[in-house]
Amino acid sequence: MALRQYADFDSRARRTEYWMFTLINVLISISSSTLQFLLNLSIFGMISTIYSLAVIIPSIVVGVHRLHDIGKGGWMMLLGLIPIIGAIWLIVLFASEGNPYENEYRPDPKDAYAEQNL
After folding, report:
1. Is the dihedral of CA 76, 78, 80, 84 positive or negative?
2. What is the pTM of this model?
3. Which residues are within 8 A (CB) of 57 and not within 5 positions of it... i.e. 6 or more apart?
4. Strand pairing partners for 41?
5. At 7, is the secondary structure helix, strand, or coil?
6. Cα three-residue angle 88-94-97, rounded to 5 degrees
């Protein structure tokens, strides 16, 4: 979902969407780095770097969507610039339950998902 809404900063993301996106990115990065280390080929380093650059904006977008789901503005992503405490606080916010009602950023994504599967 995050890659389809590449530049749409005005939406909401469920916890599952955010954490699955993060898990997949971490697994791809770890496997690329492991291949680079084991095979001692610099091509995997280049692939890893290109992949990391390609997912910077979708990572920011899915983080902003997650913050919108809990009723916070996207500017809260700047908390990550505060060493240690900012990253910890963002993890707490990303793991928080979303607002179960419509907020200024759109309706609850859980309700929209439930309505589609009736």
Report:
1. negative
2. 0.79
3. 6, 7
4. none
5. coil
6. 125
> CB of 49 within 8 A of CB of 77?
no
DSSP-assigned states of every residue in 64-116: HHHHHHTT--GGGGGGGGSTTHHHHHHHHHHHSPPPSS-BTTBS-HHHHHHHH
Beta-carbon neighbour count of residue 62 at 10 Å? 25
d(CA 36, CA 29): 11
Task: Report how far apart, in Å, the C-alpha atoms of 74 and of each of 23, 85, 93 are.
Answer: 21, 18, 12
Q: How many CB atoms lie within 10 A of CB 39?
A: 10
Residue whose token pair is 């650059």? 53
Please report how many Cα atoms fall inside a 13 Å half-sphere around the Cα of residue 72, on the Cβ side: 21
For 54-103, what is each residue's pLDDT tens digit?
999 999 999 999 998 898 988 999 999 999 999 999 999 999 988 888 87
